[in-house]
Specification:
homodimer; alpha/beta; 2 domains; 46% helix; globular
């Protein structure tokens, strides 16, 4: 049975990449809701509605697990999607991301950078404090990073300055964090530049690898879940050519426009 | 009767501002499709569908004129909306923008900066060449400008460097343009920074003032069009608070969140 993965666009391909590395024999179907991206600047009500439509479309294919590879949608829609599709295992990226951050932090001071929607939800603070109640969590919304990542501007002066402008208030404090959590699946493509600006004392973590490990453990008890041939289907709600061009950098391998199926969720 | 204005989000408020200045006694209703913004990176088919839904919602209020205050939607949907709502006058921003650029250019060399969707459509080149067949038109997509404008980063190093990166290929040529046309309604809030980077030999023009003049002339023959009390209704498809906060910079006056009505087009 297939593992379904969805995101507002191409950012979730960083999670799909980790999933395919962790579970190479499984079949995957990925849906990017590119017709309505970004989710990160939209209201919780809109994101919930979009996430429900995306999940319904994937579940119709018959899934062994559904992965919400979008932080904003995980923050807003995880519980609703678990109820809607029970007993299907539904995995979001917030819990695994919090787990990775807590594991990497010696001081318990963790900074989260994410979209406006994710920061507003407070979901990362809550998830981190569930694992480590004394943690000090600072959060900063960095909406421009999504546009930079989509534009393929992952290095250079514009990127460095934008990173500095967003991170200075979070890092230039008396007791700085020792972990910076990338709380948006678009941000891993900027990780090298973010790491350079943040400096060597700060460990950069993201949700991708820990999410893949959680999915593997969820699937252990699902009958038939281990069957597959390592296939990958890619669906988008808009413009296959743009998805293929921009998505390649996130997936870490070439995508041909012909391999992307356009579907309508409206 | 009311003048309807729509855009993917808050950018079209730069056009509404010019319209209210040009036609101060008229009533306006503005719709920003913030649940699905931006249009500029989406396919023509999606933008056409969204524009039809937005236009239908506004026309239901009884209009004397419909203004497409979005370059991407004007490029893709103007003719379709004219047919759909005939004999209602429907005014886009591409024709008026082209008119402003041609009027301002001595050399006939014009650069257009816009979204990916507008550039891909070739609509500005076609509109400019209809007015001045010998014109030389260069076009550059600057998708990051939308995010910068939405983020309120209208001045500073990040902005200057991003402008330079986009404009250098267009301006640093043997025979540079003498007019730079802002072919996206988000861009006027960046006009000061763009003008500084482009230098004093290049005239910056946008569509807002000429669009308002075209609307005034269209309304001359419409019965009852001159009635009104200078009112303004603001509708958005998502998050009134964000629309109010971000929109104020584009409209040039404060907007209270309570003044924004959220509507559903889906």
């Amino acid at each position: 049975m297939t593992i379904g993965v969805f995101d507002s666009g191409v950012g979730g391909l960083t999670v799909l990449r980790a999933l395919r590395r962790e579970l190479p024999g499984r079949d995957f179907i990925y849906l990017g809701d590119t017709a309505r991206l970004p989710y990160g600047t939209k209201s919780a009500a809109s994101v919930l509605r979009y996430a429900e439509q995306a999940a319904d479309a994937l579940v119709a294919h018959g899934l062994s697990c559904l992965v919400i590879a979008c932080n904003t949608a995980s923050a807003v829609a995880l519980e609703a999607l678990r109820r809607r599709h029970a007993p299907l295992p539904v995995v979001g990226v917030i819990g695994p991301g919090a787990q990775a951050a807590v594991a990497a932090s010696a001081s318990g001071r963790i900074a989260v950078i994410a979209t406006e929607g994710t920061v507003r939800s407070g979901a990362y603070e809550a998830a981190i404090r569930r694992l480590r109640p004394q943690a000090e969590v600072a959060a900063a919304a960095c909406p421009l990073f999504v546009a930079l990542a989509e534009e393929g501007w992952t290095e250079g002066e514009v990127v460095d300055l934008a990173i500095r402008r967003y991170l200075d208030p979070v890092l230039s404090v008396a007791a700085p964090p020792d972990v910076l959590l990338l709380g948006c699946t678009h941000f891993p493509v900027l990780a090298a530049a973010i790491g350079r600006v943040a400096g060597p004392r700060i460990t950069i973590v993201d949700s991708a690898a820990t999410t893949a490990a959680v999915v593997r453990s969820e699937l252990r008890d699902v009958v038939g879940a281990s069957q597959g041939c390592g296939s990958m289907r890619l669906l988008a709600t808009d413009d296959a050519a743009r998805f293929a061009r921009v998505g390649a950098g996130f997936l870490g391998e070439a995508i041909t426009a012909g391999a992307v199926e356009v579907v309508d969720l409206g």
